[in-house]
Amino acid sequence: MTSPLPELYIGVDVEADGPIPGPYSMISLGMAVAGRPDLTFYTELRPISDEFVPAALAVSGLDRDRLLREAPTAQEAMSAAAAWVNGLRRIGRPVFLAAPAVWDGMFVHWYFVRFVGHSPFGATGSGVDLRSYWMGLTGSEWVQTRKGKIKHELGLHDVPHTHHAGEDAAELAQVFDAVLRRRQSGEPA
Fold first, then answer.
1. Which residues, 6+ apart, have CB-to-CB distance to 26 below 8 Å?
2. pLDDT tens digits, residue range 65-89?
3. Collapsing DSSP states into helix, strand and coil, what is residue 181?
4. How far is CA 33 from the centre of its chain?
5. Which keywords fit this entry according to its UniProt record (predicted)?
6. Nearest-angstrom CA–CA distance, 177 and 185
7. With 0-12 CB in 10 A as exposed, 13-18 as middle and 19+ as buried, what is 179?
8. Structure pTM?
9. 3-class SS at 152?
10. 3-class SS at 126?
């Protein structure tokens, strides 16, 4: 039996200073609910290790020294993120959404389990991957599922990708909302 509350697809984006969590740090986290631009969450995080890849850090434009001085600890940031996700349960059932789900999901799930004890998205940290969803909807191949291509197909030309986790989570939520509306309208994808 499913809940009478609707699923809430939560677009999640992270910026990190290396390729995997643990040795490297998630330095910002953004979340936004598809179809609800008023429901967003953003935090920066204090790095958890001394290791970082300068090129990975440069993508976000965040100042690592400032994060070490001013950002909330990983436990504080992830506890606030979990509280935000759990607060949405009064209006719907949170579903993790990312593009790619493997990258963002790897960091988010690891951080929730490590610093909160569990993930508000469930024990497996699973969720929806935009690119895989688009493949299923359109019958396209993986190479045709870059977010920029999907945005072009949907006519979303003024939706930037900035490498700011909060803005990119909102971008993802907007793209997925457009994908869902196209699917519901029966338009060919």
1. 14, 15, 16, 45, 74, 107, 108, 111
2. 999 999 999 999 999 999 999 999 9
3. helix
4. 10
5. Exonuclease, Hydrolase, Nuclease
6. 12
7. buried
8. 0.95
9. helix
10. coil
